[in-house]
TrEMBL record:
PANTHER family: PROTEIN TRIGALACTOSYLDIACYLGLYCEROL 3, CHLOROPLASTIC. It comes from the Bacteria. InterPro entries: AAA+_ATPase (IPR003593), ABC_transporter-like_ATP-bd (IPR003439), ABC_transporter-like_CS (IPR017871), P-loop_NTPase (IPR027417). It comes from Nitratireductor mangrovi. This is ABC transporter ATP-binding protein. GO terms for molecular function: ATP binding; ATP hydrolysis activity. SMART domains: AAA. Residues 20-257 form the ABC transporter domain. The keyword Transport applies. Keywords: ATP-binding, Nucleotide-binding, Transport. Belongs to the ABC transporter superfamily.
Amino acid sequence: MTAAVQDQALEGVRVREAVLEAIDVTVAFGDTVVLDKLCLEVVRGEILGFVGASGSGKSVLMRTILGLNPMQSGRIELFGRDAFSRSDEERNEIDVKTGVLFQHGALFSSLTVKENIQIPMREYLDLPRPLMDELARLKLELVGLPRSAGDKYPAQLSGGMIKRAGLARALALDPEIVFLDEPTSGLDPIGAAEFDELVANLRDTMGLTVYMVTHDLDSLYSICDRVAVLGEKRVLVAGTIDELLAFDHPWVQSYFHGKRARAIPRNRS
Ligand SMILES: Nc1ncnc2c1ncn2[C@@H]1O[C@H](COP(=O)(O)OP(=O)(O)OP(=O)(O)O)[C@@H](O)[C@H]1O
Protein backbone atom coordinates (compact mmCIF):
# COMPACT_ATOMS: atom_id res chain seq x y z
CA MET A 1 0.00 0.00 0.00
CA THR A 2 1.46 3.39 -0.96
CA ALA A 3 1.70 6.15 1.66
CA ALA A 4 -1.05 8.12 -0.12
CA VAL A 5 -3.43 5.15 -0.15
CA GLN A 6 -2.61 4.45 3.50
CA ASP A 7 -3.37 8.09 4.39
CA GLN A 8 -6.66 7.86 2.53
CA ALA A 9 -7.54 4.64 4.34
CA LEU A 10 -6.66 6.24 7.69
CA GLU A 11 -8.78 9.28 6.82
CA GLY A 12 -11.66 6.93 6.08
CA VAL A 13 -11.27 5.28 9.47
CA ARG A 14 -11.17 8.67 11.20
CA VAL A 15 -14.27 9.87 9.37
CA ARG A 16 -16.23 6.79 10.38
CA GLU A 17 -14.99 6.51 13.96
CA ALA A 18 -17.97 6.01 16.26
CA VAL A 19 -17.70 8.13 19.39
CA LEU A 20 -20.97 6.76 20.72
CA GLU A 21 -22.77 3.51 19.99
CA ALA A 22 -26.02 2.36 21.53
CA ILE A 23 -26.62 -1.30 20.82
CA ASP A 24 -30.01 -2.94 21.52
CA VAL A 25 -30.69 -0.57 24.42
CA THR A 26 -33.88 -1.37 26.31
CA VAL A 27 -35.19 0.90 29.07
CA ALA A 28 -38.40 0.39 31.03
CA PHE A 29 -40.07 1.97 34.02
CA GLY A 30 -42.00 -0.83 35.70
CA ASP A 31 -44.03 -2.50 32.94
CA THR A 32 -43.72 0.47 30.61
CA VAL A 33 -41.06 -0.04 28.00
CA VAL A 34 -39.79 3.34 26.74
CA LEU A 35 -36.88 2.17 24.56
CA ASP A 36 -36.86 -1.28 22.96
CA LYS A 37 -33.60 -2.60 21.50
CA LEU A 38 -32.69 0.86 20.26
CA CYS A 39 -29.54 1.20 18.12
CA LEU A 40 -27.73 4.46 17.32
CA GLU A 41 -24.27 5.51 16.21
CA VAL A 42 -22.71 8.97 16.54
CA VAL A 43 -19.61 9.56 14.46
CA ARG A 44 -16.64 11.70 15.51
CA GLY A 45 -16.92 15.33 14.42
CA GLU A 46 -20.57 15.25 13.40
CA ILE A 47 -23.48 17.26 14.71
CA LEU A 48 -26.29 14.76 15.18
CA GLY A 49 -29.78 16.13 15.71
CA PHE A 50 -32.08 13.87 17.69
CA VAL A 51 -35.82 14.35 17.24
CA GLY A 52 -39.00 12.54 18.18
CA ALA A 53 -42.50 13.23 19.47
CA SER A 54 -42.93 14.57 23.00
CA GLY A 55 -42.70 11.71 25.45
CA SER A 56 -41.02 9.37 22.95
CA GLY A 57 -37.96 8.94 25.16
CA LYS A 58 -35.32 11.41 23.95
CA SER A 59 -34.42 12.57 27.45
CA VAL A 60 -34.56 9.01 28.76
CA LEU A 61 -32.02 7.92 26.13
CA MET A 62 -29.73 10.86 26.87
CA ARG A 63 -29.90 10.19 30.59
CA THR A 64 -29.23 6.49 29.96
CA ILE A 65 -26.18 7.24 27.83
CA LEU A 66 -24.90 9.53 30.59
CA GLY A 67 -25.37 6.80 33.20
CA LEU A 68 -28.14 8.71 35.02
CA ASN A 69 -30.79 6.14 34.22
CA PRO A 70 -30.44 2.33 34.35
CA MET A 71 -31.08 0.20 31.26
CA GLN A 72 -32.69 -3.23 31.35
CA SER A 73 -30.48 -4.62 28.61
CA GLY A 74 -28.17 -3.57 25.80
CA ARG A 75 -24.81 -1.93 25.62
CA ILE A 76 -23.56 1.63 25.33
CA GLU A 77 -20.09 2.29 24.02
CA LEU A 78 -18.36 5.62 24.38
CA PHE A 79 -15.00 6.18 22.69
CA GLY A 80 -14.95 2.57 21.53
CA ARG A 81 -15.40 0.88 24.90
CA ASP A 82 -18.24 -0.21 27.13
CA ALA A 83 -19.38 2.87 29.01
CA PHE A 84 -20.44 1.14 32.20
CA SER A 85 -18.44 -2.06 32.82
CA ARG A 86 -15.50 -0.05 34.02
CA SER A 87 -13.55 0.86 37.11
CA ASP A 88 -14.24 4.25 38.71
CA GLU A 89 -10.99 5.52 37.25
CA GLU A 90 -11.95 4.45 33.73
CA ARG A 91 -15.43 5.94 34.15
CA ASN A 92 -13.81 9.25 35.18
CA GLU A 93 -11.87 9.20 31.91
CA ILE A 94 -15.19 9.03 30.04
CA ASP A 95 -16.79 11.74 32.16
CA VAL A 96 -13.90 14.10 31.45
CA LYS A 97 -14.38 13.62 27.69
CA THR A 98 -18.15 14.21 27.92
CA GLY A 99 -19.89 17.58 28.37
CA VAL A 100 -23.60 18.13 28.98
CA LEU A 101 -25.89 21.12 28.60
CA PHE A 102 -29.22 20.34 30.23
CA GLN A 103 -32.40 21.91 28.92
CA HIS A 104 -32.59 24.95 31.18
CA GLY A 105 -28.85 25.37 31.68
CA ALA A 106 -29.04 23.64 35.09
CA LEU A 107 -26.74 26.22 36.64
CA PHE A 108 -26.53 26.40 40.43
CA SER A 109 -28.37 29.59 41.34
CA SER A 110 -26.29 30.25 44.45
CA LEU A 111 -23.01 30.20 42.51
CA THR A 112 -21.66 32.78 40.08
CA VAL A 113 -21.24 31.83 36.44
CA LYS A 114 -17.48 31.49 36.97
CA GLU A 115 -18.02 29.18 39.94
CA ASN A 116 -20.50 27.12 37.91
CA ILE A 117 -17.96 26.71 35.11
CA GLN A 118 -15.35 25.64 37.65
CA ILE A 119 -17.47 22.85 39.17
CA PRO A 120 -16.20 20.14 36.76
CA MET A 121 -12.64 21.47 37.14
CA ARG A 122 -12.87 21.12 40.93
CA GLU A 123 -14.31 17.62 40.60
CA TYR A 124 -11.84 16.19 38.10
CA LEU A 125 -8.73 18.40 38.06
CA ASP A 126 -6.40 19.53 40.77
CA LEU A 127 -5.54 23.05 39.65
CA PRO A 128 -4.49 26.19 41.51
CA ARG A 129 -7.22 28.82 41.77
CA PRO A 130 -5.60 31.47 39.49
CA LEU A 131 -5.35 28.87 36.72
CA MET A 132 -9.00 27.85 37.17
CA ASP A 133 -9.98 31.54 37.01
CA GLU A 134 -8.04 31.93 33.77
CA LEU A 135 -9.61 28.78 32.32
CA ALA A 136 -13.10 30.00 33.25
CA ARG A 137 -12.37 33.30 31.49
CA LEU A 138 -11.26 31.39 28.38
CA LYS A 139 -14.46 29.32 28.39
CA LEU A 140 -16.57 32.48 28.68
CA GLU A 141 -14.74 33.90 25.69
CA LEU A 142 -15.21 30.66 23.76
CA VAL A 143 -19.00 30.89 24.10
CA GLY A 144 -19.13 34.62 23.37
CA LEU A 145 -19.85 35.91 26.87
CA PRO A 146 -18.09 38.99 28.29
CA ARG A 147 -15.67 38.50 31.19
CA SER A 148 -18.04 40.45 33.42
CA ALA A 149 -20.62 37.64 33.06
CA GLY A 150 -18.34 35.43 35.19
CA ASP A 151 -19.17 37.37 38.36
CA LYS A 152 -22.92 37.37 37.76
CA TYR A 153 -25.44 34.96 39.24
CA PRO A 154 -27.71 32.96 36.88
CA ALA A 155 -30.75 35.08 37.89
CA GLN A 156 -28.94 38.15 36.52
CA LEU A 157 -28.56 36.64 33.02
CA SER A 158 -30.87 36.56 29.99
CA GLY A 159 -32.10 33.19 28.68
CA GLY A 160 -29.53 33.26 25.87
CA MET A 161 -26.71 34.06 28.29
CA ILE A 162 -27.78 31.19 30.56
CA LYS A 163 -27.55 28.75 27.63
CA ARG A 164 -24.09 30.07 26.79
CA ALA A 165 -22.99 29.85 30.43
CA GLY A 166 -24.29 26.26 30.56
CA LEU A 167 -22.35 25.51 27.40
CA ALA A 168 -19.21 27.07 28.90
CA ARG A 169 -19.59 24.68 31.84
CA ALA A 170 -20.15 21.75 29.46
CA LEU A 171 -16.86 22.71 27.76
CA ALA A 172 -14.97 23.17 31.04
CA LEU A 173 -12.85 20.02 30.62
CA ASP A 174 -12.36 20.28 26.83
CA PRO A 175 -14.67 17.33 26.09
CA GLU A 176 -14.70 15.33 22.86
CA ILE A 177 -18.50 15.03 22.76
CA VAL A 178 -21.18 17.37 24.09
CA PHE A 179 -24.82 16.48 24.73
CA LEU A 180 -27.19 19.39 24.27
CA ASP A 181 -30.79 19.01 25.45
CA GLU A 182 -33.00 21.40 23.46
CA PRO A 183 -30.37 24.16 23.49
CA THR A 184 -32.41 26.69 21.51
CA SER A 185 -35.74 26.22 23.29
CA GLY A 186 -36.94 29.49 24.79
CA LEU A 187 -34.62 31.61 22.63
CA ASP A 188 -35.92 34.11 20.09
CA PRO A 189 -35.12 33.20 16.45
CA ILE A 190 -32.07 35.49 16.31
CA GLY A 191 -30.69 34.18 19.60
CA ALA A 192 -31.37 30.60 18.46
CA ALA A 193 -29.57 31.17 15.14
CA GLU A 194 -26.60 32.70 16.97
CA PHE A 195 -26.47 29.74 19.33
CA ASP A 196 -26.54 27.33 16.37
CA GLU A 197 -23.69 29.25 14.76
CA LEU A 198 -21.71 29.01 17.99
CA VAL A 199 -22.20 25.23 18.15
CA ALA A 200 -21.14 24.84 14.50
CA ASN A 201 -18.05 27.00 15.10
CA LEU A 202 -17.07 24.93 18.13
CA ARG A 203 -17.40 21.76 16.10
CA ASP A 204 -15.27 23.24 13.32
CA THR A 205 -12.56 24.70 15.56
CA MET A 206 -12.38 22.10 18.34
CA GLY A 207 -13.41 19.03 16.37
CA LEU A 208 -16.26 18.49 18.83
CA THR A 209 -18.85 15.80 18.31
CA VAL A 210 -22.32 17.12 19.11
CA TYR A 211 -25.43 15.15 20.12
CA MET A 212 -28.32 17.57 20.12
CA VAL A 213 -31.86 16.78 21.21
CA THR A 214 -34.03 19.41 19.57
CA HIS A 215 -37.48 20.34 18.30
CA ASP A 216 -35.98 23.21 16.31
CA LEU A 217 -36.30 22.59 12.58
CA ASP A 218 -34.04 25.56 11.82
CA SER A 219 -31.23 23.93 13.82
CA LEU A 220 -31.73 20.64 11.99
CA TYR A 221 -31.51 22.32 8.59
CA SER A 222 -28.75 24.77 9.36
CA ILE A 223 -26.15 22.86 11.39
CA CYS A 224 -26.93 19.14 11.70
CA ASP A 225 -24.97 16.72 9.53
CA ARG A 226 -27.41 13.93 10.29
CA VAL A 227 -30.69 13.59 12.12
CA ALA A 228 -31.93 10.56 14.04
CA VAL A 229 -35.66 10.10 14.59
CA LEU A 230 -36.97 8.35 17.69
CA GLY A 231 -40.34 6.62 17.35
CA GLU A 232 -41.94 3.30 18.23
CA LYS A 233 -39.34 2.95 21.02
CA ARG A 234 -36.38 2.83 18.63
CA VAL A 235 -34.48 4.90 16.09
CA LEU A 236 -36.77 4.83 13.06
CA VAL A 237 -34.20 6.36 10.75
CA ALA A 238 -30.90 8.25 10.91
CA GLY A 239 -29.50 10.15 7.97
CA THR A 240 -29.11 13.46 6.21
CA ILE A 241 -32.08 15.79 5.95
CA ASP A 242 -32.50 14.80 2.31
CA GLU A 243 -32.60 11.12 3.31
CA LEU A 244 -35.19 11.89 5.97
CA LEU A 245 -37.31 13.94 3.58
CA ALA A 246 -37.52 10.85 1.39
CA PHE A 247 -38.16 8.44 4.26
CA ASP A 248 -41.59 6.89 4.08
CA HIS A 249 -42.98 7.01 7.61
CA PRO A 250 -46.08 8.99 8.68
CA TRP A 251 -44.47 10.79 11.65
CA VAL A 252 -41.28 11.61 9.73
CA GLN A 253 -43.31 12.81 6.75
CA SER A 254 -45.55 15.04 8.83
CA TYR A 255 -42.59 16.39 10.84
CA PHE A 256 -40.52 17.36 7.79
CA HIS A 257 -43.34 18.11 5.37
CA GLY A 258 -45.97 19.51 7.78
CA LYS A 259 -47.17 23.11 7.92
CA ARG A 260 -44.36 24.33 10.17
CA ALA A 261 -41.72 22.67 8.02
CA ARG A 262 -42.97 23.96 4.71
CA ALA A 263 -41.14 27.29 4.64
CA ILE A 264 -37.77 25.92 5.62
CA PRO A 265 -36.55 23.86 2.66
CA ARG A 266 -36.88 26.91 0.41
CA ASN A 267 -34.42 28.75 2.67
CA ARG A 268 -31.81 26.01 2.73
CA SER A 269 -28.40 27.34 1.79
N1 LIG B 1 -38.11 8.36 36.02
C1 LIG B 1 -39.18 7.99 35.29
N2 LIG B 1 -40.10 7.15 35.80
C2 LIG B 1 -41.16 6.75 35.07
N3 LIG B 1 -41.38 7.15 33.79
C3 LIG B 1 -40.50 7.98 33.24
C4 LIG B 1 -39.36 8.46 33.94
N4 LIG B 1 -38.63 9.27 33.11
C5 LIG B 1 -39.33 9.30 31.96
N5 LIG B 1 -40.42 8.55 32.03
C6 LIG B 1 -41.41 8.33 30.94
O1 LIG B 1 -40.69 7.99 29.78
C7 LIG B 1 -41.33 8.52 28.62
C8 LIG B 1 -40.33 9.31 27.79
O2 LIG B 1 -40.01 10.52 28.49
P1 LIG B 1 -38.93 11.54 27.95
O3 LIG B 1 -38.83 12.64 28.97
O4 LIG B 1 -37.68 10.84 27.60
O5 LIG B 1 -39.61 12.08 26.62
P2 LIG B 1 -39.03 13.15 25.58
O6 LIG B 1 -39.00 12.49 24.25
O7 LIG B 1 -37.75 13.70 26.09
O8 LIG B 1 -40.18 14.24 25.63
P3 LIG B 1 -40.12 15.84 25.43
O9 LIG B 1 -39.81 16.09 23.98
O10 LIG B 1 -41.50 16.28 25.76
O11 LIG B 1 -39.08 16.41 26.36
C9 LIG B 1 -42.48 9.36 29.14
O12 LIG B 1 -43.67 8.60 29.02
C10 LIG B 1 -42.17 9.60 30.58
O13 LIG B 1 -43.32 9.75 31.35
